[in-house]
Amino acid sequence: MKKTIFTLFSLLGTAFAEHVTVLGVNDMHANIDGMPQLATFVKQERQNAPGLLLMAAGDSRTGNPYVDNGNRPGIPIVTLMNHVGFDLSTFGNHEFDSGAAALRDYINAAEFDFVCANIFTTDTQGIDVKPYKIFERNGVRIGVLGLVQVGETGIPDAHPDQCKGLKFASPFETAAYYKHLRSFCDVLIVLTHLGFEDDVKLAQMFPEADAIIGGHSHTRVNGGYIMNGVLITQAENKLKYVTRLTFDVEDGKVVSKKAELLPLKDLPADVATIELVEKTKSLPFFKRQLTTVKRGITSRESLGCMMADAISARAVSDIAIVNRGGVRLEDFPAGPLTVADVYRLDPFGNAIIRATLTGKELIDLIESIPQADHYGAPCVSGMTYKCVKPSAELKPMRVTEALLADGTPIDPEARYTVAYNSYIASVAPAKPADAGIAIDSDGAECLIRFLEKKAEVDYEGVSRVDTTIED
What we know:
CATH topology of the largest domain: Purple Acid Phosphatase, chain A, domain 2
Largest sheet: 6 strands, mixed
Shape: globular
Number of strands: 25
Structural class: alpha/beta
CATH class of the largest domain: Alpha Beta
Mean pLDDT: 94
Number of domains: 2
Strand order of the largest sheet: 4-3-2-1-13-14
């Protein structure tokens, strides 16, 4: 009899378990063309789980000219996120690409909250961001703590000028102050923009969390990754996938949890969302064809060489440098190249600096850029070089040979006019004696002016850097 009663109560406990569903995306990078499929998926999911939560782990903007370079930078992606029904977001490093005032407008346009515990703002900035938020669904309390990555410079990976007036703390030190959230929540999620490796590190020191929905490293985590009992997820980027997390909660505790990585590309597109996307893309300015690409360009460096040539032509410099992280496309097909394509390639609006450097200062600058940019050897115009890059990311690159375009060795004592963007000027550890002056163009405008004068361009296979990777 006692056994029968015990079994009955066990079955009743299982029957009354609550099921919590959370959808996570990250690093959308303004891929508005993926929004109609996401809208379809979310509608389908909400039919089965009306109380589900939809969250974004940062870098929702930067990557599409219609979002980044219109009259209100970033706002079009927020408008679409409102339409789809997002419940929460944290910041990625690219949320800061247009400065504090634009960030305020971005937040104010959202019909959902932003959470980020390691950013500190002033009352006068009007930036309303909470460290965490607690939702309630069917009596289950779901707490979400937000964290953004902070680099060695003390700010996220963004242009320092765009982070002026904002203060940041270590996400790891900050997380330690919020362990008490466990006592207020039945489910505790950390919504991060740190990168997968740092999410693993966070899980090791923050076992109070049930799950981490991460971003920044564009990692495809299929089925979730368990570290220290914490379920870590990430859904690559640009709305290729969405992660569905499900939690079963009994008596205020998560008794089971799982993550599923689900593709979006083959889903039918939601018609109302398509109409909103097309409205966003309707500005005729972006549709103007500048030139024709003769052969498809298949490498990031070749695109970077084209950008460097454009900067050199505009700045009338001997040499131009483009950090490889500033080249935002991996390739480009043969055919028309429009103004919109230029802004896809260079969405940042960084000013171009023209300075006079000695040959030694030039080499020092080139060697130091990968330490801050993390994308490898810079692209150049007006020169070629050979370098050795240690496989360890933060170790400095060494230039072993540097020649002018005509094959003349670069003289350490000679002086050269060099053009590069203000991001390089701000973050590269090497600081030439001449800080230079800004010309009246940013990188995208340089490229527009350069390309519109050419009937066609052919940069396929163009390479000016020979890199050797060593252990």
